[in-house]
Specification:
There is one protein chain. It contains eight helices and twelve strands. The chain is an alpha/beta fold and about 325 residues long. The chain folds into two domains: about 45 residues; about 250 residues, Nitrilase/N-carbamoyl-D-aminoacid amidohydrolase, CATH 3.60.110.10. The chain has a six-stranded mixed sheet with strand order 5-4-3-2-1-12. The protein has a six-stranded mixed sheet with strand order 6-7-8-9-10-11. A hairpin with a 5-residue loop joins β9 and β10. α1 runs antiparallel to α2 and α6 crosses α7. The longest helix has 25 residues.
Amino acid sequence: MALLWGLGAWTGFQAARGAGPRRVLAAPALLLLLLGGLDAAWHLLPRGPRLALDVVMIQPNYPPGERMAGMEADMWRRTDAELKRSGLPRPAYATLVLWPESSVLGRNDLAPGGRLPLEARNRGVAWLFGTEGGRFNLVRGEAAGQPSFIQAKVLPMPFGERMPGPRPVRDFLDRHLGFYSAEAGTLGPGSSFRFPTPQGPLTVHPLICSEALLEQRVADGLAAAGGQLLANLTNDGWFDRSVATDLHAVQIRLRAVEAGVPLLRATLTGKSGIFREDGSWELWGQPMTEASRSLHLAWRPVLTPARSPRLAPAILGLLALALVAAAWNKRETRLN
């Protein structure tokens, strides 16, 4: 989008100053060549082995942020109905059940083990869901034979989830404004959910809500913990029926292309969907609706340079050097 804005500004400027057709059309031609070259280069990037997975996503349309009795039981009722309808799980493929952010509230899910691993094992599924524990916004995963996976949101949204500033400032604002600042999680080798499949272990890197908007957060997470699949567990109920849920989706689909792996989007109120590594995507239904979806997903991870957390700083550094060089050249021209 930035390239298109820049192209339009350049072309309009050249046309307004009376430049010839060759100079006016030079930038559009170069942009087309650049985009064509990048597209060809993307298809030449190395691929990983073929992976396959059955996925079930539940969209309950709960009131956002509301703690209600029996949330987990209701989510399992919806999940069991979808598993039965779809004939899942199947022997040849693992089944991943995704519940969105805030699908289970009103309890502390920080402690591993307990009853929850049995819920996944008894159904023969891997289960990844949004919950909470203490002051943490959590995603938790369970699968047979695996330790409980627990990851807190690393970047709580300023003002929306956490007052900015050092702790004394946050505590002061919380007390006087009646706010409740979430604590931030950390990234490490255990920040991706790993579970067995008939084809071998599969690793899913989860992103809670707004984290999927930030390319550096995704690159840092993949560098720390790896990931053959991305999952965005989000509560878009705050957007109601506005276009904001589509704007959120439009931005996070870039993460799938950058990382070279599909991104599954499980929302509390819609629109849930999938963004594939080749840029294609699907969103289902409308905001503020209930839905249950199952799909078979097959892909080969693309080993893209954007998975490196050093890429964005390197590009910014090159741009800064280019600006310094241009300014220096202009200064030398004036002196001569």
